[in-house]
Design a protein that fits this description.
Elements: H1 3-31, H2 74-78, H3 81-84, E1 94-99, E2 113-114, H4 126-135, E3 149-154, H5 164-176, E4 181-184, H6 193-204, E5 208-212, E6 240-245, E7 260-261, E8 263-266, E9 270-273, E10 280-283, H7 286-303, H8 309-318, H9 330-335, H10 344-351, E11 354-355, H11 360-395, H12 401-405
Parallel strand pairs: 1-3, 1-4, 2-3, 4-5, 5-6, 6-8
Antiparallel strand pairs: 7-11, 9-10
Helix pairs in contact: 1-11, 4-7, 5-6, 7-8, 8-10
Amino acid sequence: MKPPARGAARLLSGAGLAAALLLPTAVTAHTAPHSGVPMADGKKGQELPAMPSALDADAECTAASREKAKKQDWSRQRLDLDRTHGHGIGTGVTVALIDTGVAPDADGLDGRVTADGPAADDCVGHGTFLAGLIAGRGASLTGVAPGARILALRGTDTRGAASPALVAAAVREATEAGADVIAVTVALPRRNTELTRAVADARRAGAIVVAAATPDPPTRGGTDEIPSRVYWPAGEPGVLSVADMLPGGLRPDRALPTTDIDLAAPGAGVVSGGPRGDGHYLGAGASVATAYAAGAAAVVLAAHPDDSPDAVTHRLTATAYPADIPQLDAYAAVTTVLGDPGASAGTERAAERVAVRDTSDADAATDRATLFVILGSTAVLTVLWAAFTLPRARARGWRPARAAGGGSAED
């Protein structure tokens, strides 16, 4: 073999081998943003226990985490909380959190949580986790509105199963207590008359109602067979319906399908604390996104105290990052100068619904196309390598090049 030919063969052989070795990495890198599994923190390197949104009937309460986050997670960076807090921290605003309850003495929340009766006993830990996202204080895990107060209310039983009666009663209690923001982080599959009335009364009383667009996905089984539907109270008029998103802005693969979403916020690989100890957990789902949106509403309301509830909702949606589902931008919501907050446009925008484009087929097609391109490139390189190498190997009697040529540069 001539030296140039041998060099070309070696080059093509190396390229084919590199393509084969890079194939799994390339496919994984492309498909990772679409995964519904909570990431460590949007980056590699932080492995923390998962915070469940509900417990099995025979499961013990969520144990204290022995792990601590080593750095700020992607969600807080995405919401630009460091700059946002330079313009407001939600001081003077009360956020009613309707979930599994909140431990009043939880790390980072002590002194700013009102929780009576069952609401003070958070066996699941999920409500306390969300409270930290709204109003927690910590070196790197500060909530969106660390100056706000939390009114903890139970919308579930002790295991985390929600019911219309409990959620409706909690909304009414929040209204009677004068909560400024009501965050309903559970979602119900059917509309309930009593809950509809409770939400309407809360809005008439001047509360901003923020609700999860869907329940958090089940821990077992797939979600492919679950039909798309509107969940409640997110579907009620004037309620800000919030869904979860990945760092790339897409909804997770396992997110339950729905048709009406007003806003998307970080909802995967999010870090917060729990009701026991000072360790950290990972959380995911629309409930996490709703907590972030409720915290942003508190900061906006504190910074713009003359704004009506509809104007605050309008500000959150109008300043959101433009996408198929508008993405929460806490800093822009606080700092952007809008028109007359009392104009009818605000009310109309708050009542609008954003139709969610189902991107699952397109995402799958993109993944397949990427895989085919990589496989095709590998096949072409393999054929070229064989075309250069096999005839020369046959001519040498299948002996190594050095043995066939006695160390000569010629075949």
